[in-house]
Hints:
Low-confidence stretches: none
Order of helices and strands: HEHEHEHEHEEHHHEE
Number of helices: 8
Structural class: alpha/beta
Oligomer: single chain
Number of strands: 8
Amino acid sequence: MRLSQIGEKGQQAILDASALIVGVGGLGSPAAMYLAAAGIGKLILNDYDIVETSNLQRQIIHRNAAVGEDKVESGRRTVEALNPECQVEVISYQMEFDELREAVDSVDIVLDCTDNYPTRFDINRACVETATPLVIGAAIRLEGQIMNYQPAANSACYQCLYTHAYGAEESCELEGVLGPVVGVVGTMQAVQTLLILAGQGEALENRLLLFDAYAMEWQSVTLPKNPDCPACGKSK
């Protein structure tokens, strides 16, 4: 509340807010934990995987004792331990689009913490159709990226950047990732989410941030809205 960019009004907005986090892995772990610690009123955690030993290198919301357990249940326990006043709901299966759209429409903001194009496209489409702000993160190897979609600003959406899925998909399991890299990106997603909820999220509109951990560099790329975007364009 002492931050001029947040203040009492912004903190109250965070307390009153709800967020859907799709993916409780490397990105969703720090995002969920920081949002809970910041006092967000409600989190919906969606993931259909179980905790595996190999996840623990980067998915800091889980513990060794949770191996074999649903990620959403492990995540719920950690969030509730951090902030018992945060209401946590879990969805432990992959939602069909209509149900996903309904879940998106029920919250104030969505965090895409997934790792595949089809799911990202569905989340993006649901946010476009319901005019729900979306914060998107991705990481692989020693690289990461973050962007957002803000309907109130008529900003570019995820499919303005990636119109189609390209080639074989990469994953942390196959390609590897330095654990803290997903932590950096997931934490940045939490930062953006809190700023948007507090009414201060303009800085990342129509921009893509790229993180190179090896060079320790951030790059900012202008991302113009695509009038022919299959999700948010005029001809959709």
